[in-house]
Amino acid sequence: MTKEQWLSVRKQIPDGAKQPWTVLxxxxxxxxxxxxxxxxxxxxxxxQVLGLVLAGFATLQIYLILHEALHGAVSENRNLNNFIGxxxxxxxxxxxxxxxxxxxxxxxxxxHPLNDPENRGMIEKFAVMTKQQERTLEFMWKHWIPMIxxxxxxxxxxxxxxxxxxxxxxxxxxxxxxxxxxYLVGYLMLAGVALYFGHLADxxxxxxxxxxxxxxxxxxxxxxxxxxxxxxxxxxERLQYWEQDLVSHDCKNLPIWSRLVILNFNLHIVHxxxxxxxxxxxxxxxxxxxxxxxxxxxxxxxxxxxFAWTNRRRPLLKLMGxxxxxxx
Length: 328
Prior knowledge:
This protein is an all-alpha fold. 65% of the residues lie in helices and 0% in strands. It is built from 16 helices and no strands. The longest helix has 26 residues, at 45-70.
């Protein structure tokens, strides 16, 4: 993609959120989550399973709507956008402010080994391993244990406290710490209410199952888009938006799944090129972009499921060794 092609498409598409679809979808997902909880409390195993299915679907979309809020693409009203971002982050235990800081840096510094927090966090965690740690890592990868997503969530919780301990006492870090504590207070209050009504164990099990499913889906959706893409040099300048198609991949479009379940998250190239465009306009942007320059042929693309099925049987250090293994 050239700068001229990018600018031509940029002029034809609306920026940010112009329609209420994401807010309405978020409301529906909250209602589905409430229905799922009530089904979980039923004595029928069939209804409990149905409740977990609905909870998994709703929680996945809440994660994706949180991603929209990071880009200010939920609502033109900034306060409403941030409110939905915080509520979504609290529901799935992923702090909104920290996640926004990290994710904006990821878009600014995509493929940079130090300035892209997504890369830096994994490199710091997995760059030097013993043979035993490598075997453990490969065991978890092969058996679909979502340790990368778990590490990602944990890093977002720890980041402001680590930064503060290292001397970063800026208002931004202080605010992130305050909201992390507010989230924790909210969890304690919810646990107290559940305990009062005799459903604390039900809540913990319901949340644990749904959370593990979300971890699985986070890895399923996120890993294909930058896997095996080259990293930049440590002293490299950031890539411009029209250059990021070199280090990002799309996944194959699957009817219903791609648009209605994962909200066009598979269209990752256009998302990196135009990150403020909401999910329901990404297909339109892709069409405009294809008119200017053909992108990845659809025949060469694979779905998230095919990627996982193929690569979970490969050693992780072969797939993403440039992230994890610096021993050589």
